[in-house]
Amino acid sequence: MGILNVTPDSFSDGGRFNDVGHAVAQAMRMAEEGADIIDIGAESTRPGHEPISASTEIARLVPVLEALRGRITCPISVDTMKAPVAEAALAHGATIINDVWGFKRDPRLAPLAAKHRAAVVLMHNRETIDPTINIIDDMLCFLDASLRDALAAGVSRDVIALDPGIGFGKTLEQNLEAIAAVPRLKDLGCSVLVGASRKSMIGKIIPSETDERLPGTITLHTAAILKGADVIRVHDVKEAVQAARVTDRLRGL
How far apart are CA 30 and CA 43, in angstroms? Predict the structure, then answer.
């Protein structure tokens, strides 16, 4: 899954692709480099981000979706926690809803996904970091509830992916534990997506700027794949594809 942020303030590439022409070029580049999915976000979800209205999010998103129509063949995912934004995206060609709050912020998302037969990504999140809790128990409880909400609304289990939420409401150690716990997530009976690309946890292990974290990103994603992750969400598609294909061969031994 290639990341396309059409925002001015995302943590890694904010402002680089919030022009429609640049966004389309980047989406096409990622598709050519081997992305299986393009995930488009029109609101930053980085820690301390400034929330925006659904109308602002739609205004950023829809022109890009319209410009991409017929130009790439891989599925398009919309990274949003708002039902009106997801509905607009689905109407303009998206087929996946990627919700960083696992259907907990907007209860309209689950029936909307079912109505449109959209695939979904349900991510674990927390308002605050609490180093004293058992993050795996918290993650499993949260995602089990999200999964039950999705299934009750009519979303098919085979189009649901669960995401441990690397970098969201977790300490460094909790992020590492979450990656190690991918097999526990698999026990819930869904695909698992892991997104550690350029995350601050890498900078906490070795001081580095966001665009210097490709080696750490590949290491974390390789570990996740070996643990059973089905999808990795990345900024650097070409490098990630090579690493993932090699790791897949190792996993098969």
Answer: 20
